[in-house]
Amino acid sequence: MSEEKKGIEIPTPWRIKRYYVYILATVVSLVLPWIKVNGNHFFLLSFDKMKLHLAFVQFDMQELYLMPFLLMILFLGIFGMTVLGGRVFCGWVCPQTVFRVIYRDLIETKLLKLRKRIGNKQQEPDMSKPENKVKKLIAILIWTVLALIAGADFMWYFIPPEDFFKYLQNPSEHMVMIGFVLGVAGFLIYDIVFLKENFCIYVCPYSRVQSVLYDDHTVMAIYDEHRGGKIYEDEGNGQHVKLVNKQKDLQAIDPNAECTTCEKCVTVCPTHIDIRQGLQLECINCLECVDACTTVMGKLGKPSLVTWSSEYEIVERKGKTKYFRSKVIAYMVLLVLISAILGFMGSTKEHMLLNINKETRLYSVKHLSDNKFVVDNSYIFLLQNTENEPMEFFFEVLPSKDINGEIKIVKPSKPFRVVPGVKKKKIVTLRTTDLLVDNPRKDTIIPITIYAYALDKDGKPSKKISVLRHSTFVFPKESVLGIKKQ
User: Fold this and answer.
1) Do the beta carbons of residue 454 and residue 432 sit within 8 Å?
2) Rounded to whole angstroms, how far apart are CA atoms 67 and 43?
3) Contact status, residue 382 vs residue 424, Cβ threshold 8 Å
4) Helix or strand or coil: residue 230?
5) Is 370 left (phi over 0), alpha (psi -120 to 50) or beta?
6) Which residues fall within 8 angstroms of residue 358, CB to CB, at 6 or more apart?
7) Helix (H) or strand (E) holding 105
8) Which of 9, 247, 393, 398 is at a distance of 20 to 30 A from 433, taking alpha carbons?
9) Do 184 and 151 touch, CB atoms closer than 8 A?
């Protein structure tokens, strides 16, 4: 009987929806490194140029204090997703799953027909046939090309594409970069072709963490034992004994059991588990089993026995799943808070970097006639232009109300040019001819404020590209100045 007559409409399979997510994730990951705004990338951690680009804003390596916040957002986001939707990250976003689908479902099944159909992931191809060996070799070669592209794409987040392809023209000078690309590609070939879902089951630590994060309202693929019937007996310690294999045996135990024991949900599972056993660490929430059961039961005019729901709703039958519970809200609040902190710290970045170090000599004094003198203090300024274009820079000493006189910068005497990404070392001399402090016994350390700025196109100080730095000016005692009092 048709689905229309039975009144059951089979929805769009979750597998197709996942494919849309995979395509979107693939396009974004490949295209994003090529997009630049004002010469900056969305994300780039360049160890080559000692730069961090974040949300199209450039930061210097001295501002890497932002990275822990990014990592916190990443991990809190994944943990929050797990609390809410189980291993939904694994089934819908994880590159391991995306790559396996491309290799197994697209290359082996759709293109080369090495596998009979997507719905059976348990049956491996018969490699005793010569034609299958050829197809397997072709599949590996195709994936090798894609793995090299994936390795290059990974490297583009550390070496931008415009530099990456320039470096490829001189491979002997950039063997580390090429080695990383080949290493990533080699790992992906081994992982996707040979290790397969064993990576998800045995290697990935996320499957061990998820059990701590789950609660009764966590949404996952769940078999409805109340409707389908009891297929397995839980003996404890993670051991399950299968009670029945045929539908007639199941209905002999439970006449109302609806499970047909077709095991479509088993053969379609990429991690080779039987969802009817209950919660298992290997489940990656790909929902292939939900699609399989939906199709089978839909033909019988019944809803699926495997649904994307919670134990609270399906197993315990205590009511509807609570999505916005205290634990989920706590993760959301933390994510918003950390994102706000990251946004604030990113918005207050300095567009130039300046370190001031005083020379070992405290001062130099030049005596003039009639109690006149010149006092110089010398400094080493380390300046870095964090913009994307060369700029003119200059310094000033801000006036202070605490001293009776003026301190001026006499060297450099005019603005100087600084190119991006290079630390400029500048010897700076501050001078005064005024009696700033009248102290006959000891030298006096005077706090000063240096105003460093770039010049805009009109030759005026830029309000955006400027910094204030605090330092000291050492003023000598009277005996050093050689002042003769009347």
Assistant:
1) no
2) 11
3) yes
4) coil
5) left
6) 377, 378, 379, 380, 471, 472
7) none
8) 393
9) yes
Find the angle CA(296)-CA(301)-CA(304) to the nearest 5 degrees.
50
Work out the burial of residue 287: count CB atoms within 10 Å of its CB; fewer than 13 is exposed, 13-18 middle, 19 or more buried: buried
- Collapsing DSSP states into helix, strand and coil, what is residue 242? strand
Burial class (CB in 10 A: 0-12, 13-18, 19+), 469: middle
Is the backbone peptide bond immediately before 412 cis, with ω within 30 degrees of 0? yes
Q: How many CA atoms lie within 13 A of 456 on its CB side?
A: 8
Residues whose CB is less than 8 angstroms from the CB of residue 246 and which lie 6 or more positions away in sequence, other chains included? 261
Compute the distance between CA of residue 28 and CA of residue 22 in angstroms, rounded to an integer. Answer: 10
Count the neighbouring beta carbons within 10 Å of the beta carbon of residue 245.
Answer: 11
The partner residues of 59 in beta bridges, in order of sequence, read 52
Residue type, 163: D
Task: Of 252, 480, 462, give the one whose Cα is nearest residue 376.
Answer: 480
What 3 state SS string does 14-55 have?
HHHHHHHHHHHHHHHHHHHHHCEECCEECEEEECCCCEEEEC
Instruction: Render each residue's pLDDT in the chain as its tens digit; 486 residues.
Output: 444 445 467 788 999 999 999 999 999 999 999 999 888 899 998 887 778 888 888 877 667 778 888 889 988 998 898 899 888 899 999 999 999 999 999 999 999 999 988 888 888 888 888 999 999 999 999 999 999 999 999 999 999 999 999 999 999 999 999 999 999 999 999 999 999 988 988 888 887 777 788 889 999 999 999 999 999 988 777 678 888 889 998 989 899 999 999 999 999 999 999 999 988 888 899 999 999 999 999 989 899 999 999 999 999 899 999 998 999 999 999 999 999 988 887 776 677 888 899 988 889 998 887 778 899 999 999 988 877 788 899 999 988 877 788 899 999 989 999 888 778 899 999 999 988 888 888 888 999 999 999 988 877 888 778 888 999 999 998 888 876 665
pTM for this model (two decimals): 0.77
Give the domains, in start order, of the chain with CATH numbers.
Answer: 1-34+86-318 (no CATH), 352-481 (2.60.40.10)
**Rounded to an integer, what distance in angstroms lies between the CA atom of residue 33 and that of residue 189?**
23
What are the counts of helices (DSSP H) followed by strands (DSSP E) for the chain? 17, 18
Neighbours of 203 (CB within 10 A): 12
Q: What's the CA gap between 338 and 72, in Å, rounded?
A: 8
Q: How far apart are the first and last CA of the chain?
A: 120
- In the block, residue with structure tokens 């509807």: 320
- The CA distance from 468 to 396, in Å, is 10
- The phi, psi pair for 379, rounded to 5°, reads -140, 160
